[in-house]
Write a structure and sequence with these properties.
With 68 residues, the protein is of the alpha+beta class. It has one helix at residues 30-47, and strands at 2-10, 17-25, 51-60. The chain has one domain. A hairpin with a 6-residue loop joins strand 1 and strand 2. The two termini are 23 Å apart.
Length: 68
């Protein structure tokens, strides 16, 4: 499974950022995820006007950091 991973920062405090993801995308290749990412992120930012996307990537779900 592939995850659309991104860093979201407050518009008013650009250093206040947190990791976010838009679910898991099943049966989608990495290239399809990359092609679909910008429209999905645009819709997300419209729904969250006080945040901006600073950085994004597609990754395999098992690449998520492990909790200690």
């Amino acid at each position: 499974m592939i995850e659309l991973f991104f860093i979201a920062c407050l518009q008013t405090a650009p250093t206040a950022c947190e990791e976010r993801s838009i679910g898991y995308i099943e049966n989608v290749s990495m290239m399809e995820c990359l092609a679909q990412a910008q429209p999905q992120l645009a819709a997300w930012t419209e729904a969250h006007p006080n945040l901006r996307v600073a950085r994004w990537s597609c990754r395999f779900a098992d690449q998520r950091p492990q909790e200690a």
